[in-house]
């Protein structure tokens, strides 16, 4: 199916410059400094260093349980890192500086920095008691403080962009999985985040519904100055959309580079094994 | 034996007292709904003293008899300068007692909300207050409304205990009518039938509500 898309984001002037060059001229929008995360004895992230440039599309691939999702959840403040720091636009996320000492951030600080980040979940997590329109306009209204009319206008426009303007009065339970995920994308986009996290956005979908969601994400990616962190098992999609691919395994970034290099000339043995498993399918 | 003439003579007086019983039930239920929600939220608070206090309060109230609590509120508090009318003391006592049970009902509703709802609320940067108001409570309360309705009926049947603190509700009225005329049969039978009719019809309504909510 084709989805009519015309996104609000302006064309990024640095878009055509090679991503390695861009990193040097632009301050990263997200920086992970030596991040580790453990659950008890299980260490799921091991000393991760990562910078994401504004507008950069980064795809995270790797086996299940390799720590990809945790990396995104730390940035969304759904989980707290065990050690290390994360910066968003040069501002500490989980910490704040008081009298030259780094202390744990309070909710007010988290609230302020979190506003730059949006997330799309594997299981959509739409609000089942609200119509589609209210799902999308509730946060602009209550979090950004827009008037009811403004919030509604923005939400309707967003729903048009994901091709669901005919469903605004429906409830989530009345939609297909693909439609639900497109609503979830609109709900996150309407907040105009600078970084969008997609946590396996098509893994919970029936195979025939995957395409419509990927198409929407591709269209968003091709538009904007918004950075994206895409966790996915759809290798063709990652190849198409991403400026850079990170291969995760056992809590570490094993290999990274532009899609061409990662898919055509994988260096590490683990990446080669991982990719060969995919090619067989 | 049963005297119809006498029964019809005392009926108006009993029905007037029924108004007191019904209004005491609803006011006490409102107290229980509000305090119950506050107890649930307090117990979930990150502020330790508050959650400990709420937990202690629930434990204390549930482990002591309602009658003792009512006597305490009505007969002991005046010694410390807080005199309450039987009605006010009664609805506070009954309301606080049942608030500890309704707190449990709220808790069940809240805990049935999938973690994804909390996460989505956080990802959209909702404040704590708005997360509760817009996302969590609107989803946790409707499924537990039937259970709340059953507590309303239980509280209704519990109101005769308020006669112990001199509230002239339906039971007290029947007792007084009996001791005036030495005829107890008619008065108590009427009271019993009124309770039966009101409780049973309410429970039917609760059941219908439950079916409606399940269909949604």
From TrEMBL, chain A:
Gene3D superfamilies: P-loop containing nucleotide triphosphate hydrolases. Keywords: Amino-acid transport, ATP-binding, Cell membrane, Membrane, Nucleotide-binding, Transport. Residues 30-275 form the ABC transporter domain. GO terms for molecular function: ABC-type amino acid transporter activity; ATP binding; ATP hydrolysis activity. It comes from the Bacteria. One of its GO terms (cellular component) is plasma membrane. Pfam families: ABC_tran. It is found in: Cell membrane. It is a peripheral membrane protein. Its main location: membrane. Belongs to the ABC transporter superfamily. PANTHER family: AMINO ACID IMPORT ATP-BINDING PROTEIN, GLUTAMATE_ASPARTATE IMPORT ATP-BINDING PROTEIN GLTL. This is Amino acid ABC transporter ATP-binding protein, PAAT family (TC 3.A.1.3.-).
TrEMBL record, chain B:
The chain crosses the membrane at residues 20-40, 52-74, 80-98, 184-206. One of its GO terms (molecular function) is transmembrane transporter activity. SUPFAM superfamilies: MetI-like. It is found in: Cell membrane. One of its GO terms (cellular component) is ATP-binding cassette (ABC) transporter complex. It comes from Desulfosporosinus lacus DSM 15449. One of its GO terms (biological process) is amino acid transport. It is a multi-pass membrane protein. Coiled coil: none annotated. This is Amino acid ABC transporter membrane protein 2, PAAT family. Belongs to the binding-protein-dependent transport system permease family. The keyword Transport applies.
